[in-house]
Structure formats: structure tokens, C-alpha cells
Amino acid sequence: METLQLRIEEHINKLSQFTATPGKGTTRLTYSKEDRQARDYIIDKMKEYGLAVHEDGLGNIFGKLEGTLKGAPSVLIGSHFDSVPNGGSYDGPAGVVAGLEVAALFAEKQLTPKYPLEIIALIEEEGARFGGGLMGSRGITGLLSEDDFKNLKDKDGISTEEAMVKIGLDPSFPKKRDPKTIKAFLEMHIEQGPILEEKNIPIGVVEAIVGLTQFEITVEGQAGHAGTTPMDRRADALVTAAKMIAQFPGLAIEEGEGTVITTGKLNVFPNGANVIPKNTVFTVDIRSGKEEHIQNVIRKLNELIESYSTNGIKITAEQQLFMQPKAMNQEIVALMKQISSELETPYCSINSGAGHDAMVFSDVTDVGMLFIPSKDGLSHCPEEWSDSKHIANAVQIFFETAKKLTEAL
Ligand SMILES: [Zn+2]
Predict the structure, then answer these.
(1) In angstroms, what is the span from residue 191 Cα to ligand 1's centroid?
(2) pLDDT of 24-75, one tens digit each?
(3) 218: buried, middle or exposed (CB in 10 Å: 19+, 13-18, 0-12)?
(4) Which pLDDT score is estimated for 1?
(5) CA-to-CA distance for 55 and 328, rounded, in angstroms?
(6) Ligand 1 centre from 316 Cα, in Å?
(7) Concatenated DSSP letters for 76-94?
(8) Does residue 132 register a pLDDT over 90?
(9) For position 321, what pLDDT does the model report?
(10) CA 58, 62, 66, 67: dihedral to nearest 10 degrees?
(11) Cα 189 to ligand 1 centroid, rounded to whole Å
């Protein structure tokens, strides 16, 4: 095994030891003892690789290789280092490790960038302690205000600031960062899905992070006795809901390009074995890399609602969430594809079905993202695994990309 791959494995193994649930996956909540241990490890490595380290008022870690151009914006590479409870060793940390190893290659080759290179390790992406998620990137970009941050508490009533101080962090440091100080952000992440593994392709170049919308649909019918109401006299809210839900997969498949639709929640009222359901309330979650697909599915959903609103059935839909798809920067996407070809690393285009810090950064800077295969498509569980060989591929692509973006010589 080559040394780059060995170093990657060592980092992953070391970081996975900083867990509150040894033997039961990685549990590394933000500002916990395990956060402190992982943080110390990351900071040590940053220093070893010649980076100047600082932490902001959220506890995000930055390791900077200065550029020769005075006051020039930085190319950031990294991901998050927190985890869900009983999660895996790769979701987040793999991207931090990739960043570290890009810095190691810069040091090894003694490159001097014109624009600074910054390796970053972000807090609380999963939201497992304080909720909401994407906290590190939302803080840096100003999407999360100082006050909102201050007011967050964990389930034991411990505030963000109290928890920070407990592990030796200083919440009075600046949080928001001037977007003018950022030239680009690159993130490598495990795919968390089965596509790359099934296709046997080592690299996915992310084109977009999917947009999503969620509806709550209420079907109102008429309750009645299950024994005495003839079948042709019923307005059954559950039968109607079931007919609608059964048609949803077809809407997504018809739309194509990875459009997905899910009903994950269904409540029946009054929910009695001998009562015809009066009301059903269910959710519809629609996701796609392109907004037009989301809009098309919404239109077809409304048509379904109209066609089933008959014979004593009333259906209402309430849109509860809408997030635009976030396209990655087309120049960086093209550059990473070109570099992959030059390195003879097979790649394909892919959309991200999950949110990532890259999504947040895309509002303020040019963003590029790479996926590597997840074994059996699994994540957020102890079985989560990715091949260090694939992480090494991503490091090589990021190294060449970062050389171009930082104009390193
Ligand atoms: Zn993640």
C-alpha cells in the first residue's frame, strides 16, 4: 500500500477511537470530551503539515498555508468532524482527512501558493447535540446569528457557550467570516448511497445538492361504523390516502434524473379497528437536483389531489418546506473532471441527496464536491465503511484542483 493510503488509514483509525461508545460505532458530539480529543489530533496534524492553526468563536478549526498574494482569499478544503450517535468513522472525518492530506502533499512538494490554502474541520454538521445541523458552516457564512447560536441548548440544558468553555474553547472569538476571504470551498464526502459502488466507479463529481420540498396532506372523509356502512356509502380517508400514495413512486420515475418522492409519515384518525377512518394526515417529501422536476411533481401532486376530491372527500395540502437545489460551481466541476481523466481515475456525475456544509458555502463562494463509494450504501451506522484507496484518489484530485485554484508553484 502506498504511503498516502497508509496515512489516510491511520488518521481514520485514530479519529474513530475518539468515541463515547467504544465498540458501538462513533459517537462524537460537538464540544464533548471526544470532540476535544479529535480536535487535538487534527490540530497536531495541521501543525505537523506546516499549517498555522486557529479556531473561531464556534470552535471550527482552520489550518492555513499562507499565500504570496497579500490579503488574498483562501481556498478551503474540509468537512465536519462530529458524528451522529452510534455513527460511523467516515461521514465527515473522511473529508477532513482528505483536506489534511492535500496539505501534506503541498508540504512534501514544498509548494508555495499565491492564494492561501486552508484546511478546515467543522463542528456540529449533524446537529446531534444542538439540533438544526450544519452549524459550523452556517456560523461562518452568517446564516446562524450570534444570538441564535448563544440561545441553543442541548437536551440537558447546557448552552453552546457553556459547552465550548468546558473543553477550552473561546466563544468570544469571531464567528462570521467575510465572504471576501474565501475563494472556493472543496469538500469530499462519502456518498451515503449505493450508486458509485453498484456502478463500480471510484469518484462521483457532485453536480448539485438536491432541492427538496415537503408537504403535509390532510384527507378528510366521513367516519362510520365498519360493520353497518355499505361499501358504496363510504368516504374513507385512509383508502383515498392509500390510492394517492401508491401513485407517488410513478410520479418520480416519470420525472426521472434521480427525482425521488417519499411518504414517511401517516396518521389515521380516529385510528380504531372498527371505525371507518375520518381523517388521514401524511407527509410527502420530493427531492431533485433540478427545480423544474420538483415543480413538475408538485403540479402532478395537485392534479392527484383534485382528482380524488370527490364523494365526500376533501383534501388539503400544506407546503411546509422548500429548499432550492444548489448547483456546484461549473468551472470547478469541469476542472475536477479533467483532472480525474488525467489521473486516469474513472468518475461519473452524481447528485447529493443529503445536505452538506458545501450546500451552505455555495451561497457565498464557488464550491466543488467529490463523493467516494460507501460500502453497501450504508452510513450513520457502525458498519459505515469506505476504501482508503478511494479517499486517496480524491486527495490526488483535490491536490491538483487546489494547485490550480491557489495558483501554487
Ligand atoms: Zn456528513
Answers:
(1) 9
(2) 999 999 999 999 999 999 999 999 999 999 999 999 999 999 999 999 999 9
(3) middle
(4) 66
(5) 27
(6) 35
(7) EEEEE----TTB-SSTTHH
(8) no
(9) 85
(10) -90
(11) 7
**Cell, residue 122:** 467543522
Positive or negative torsion for Cα 127, 128, 131, 136:
negative
Q: Going by C-beta distance under 8 Å and a sequence separation of 6 or more, which residues neighbour residue 109? A: none
Q: What angle do CA 275, 276, 278 make, to 5 degrees?
A: 110
Interval between CA 325 and ligand 1 midpoint (Å): 18
Quote the ligand 1 centre to 138 CA distance (angstroms): 14
Tell how far the Cα of 334 is from the centroid of ligand 1, in angstroms.
24
Q: What spacing in Å lies between the alpha carbon of 91 and ligand 1's midpoint?
A: 5
Is 90 exceeded by the pLDDT of residue 3?
Answer: yes
Structural contact between residues 397 and 340, judged by C-beta atoms closer than 8 angstroms: yes
| Ligand 1 centroid, distance to 234 Cα (angstroms) | 48
What's the CA-to-centroid distance between 401 and ligand 1, angstroms? Answer: 22
Query: Does pTM surpass 0.70?
Result: yes
Tell me how far the alpha carbon of residue 80 lies from the centroid of ligand 1, in angstroms.
7
pLDDT of 131 over the 90 cut: no
Residue tagged 420515475 (cell numbers): 253
Give me ligand 1 centre to Cα 355, in Å.
8
Lowest mean pLDDT segment, chosen from 211-215, 307-311, 320-324: 320-324
Q: Is the peptide bond before 270 cis (omega within 30 degrees of 0)?
A: yes
Quote the pLDDT of residue 311: 82
CA of 124 to the centre of ligand 1 (A): 10
Q: How far is the CA of 94 from the centre of ligand 1 (A)?
A: 9
The one-letter code for the residue type at 128 is: A
Find all residues with CB under 8 Å of 335, minimum gap 6, and list them: 368, 401, 404
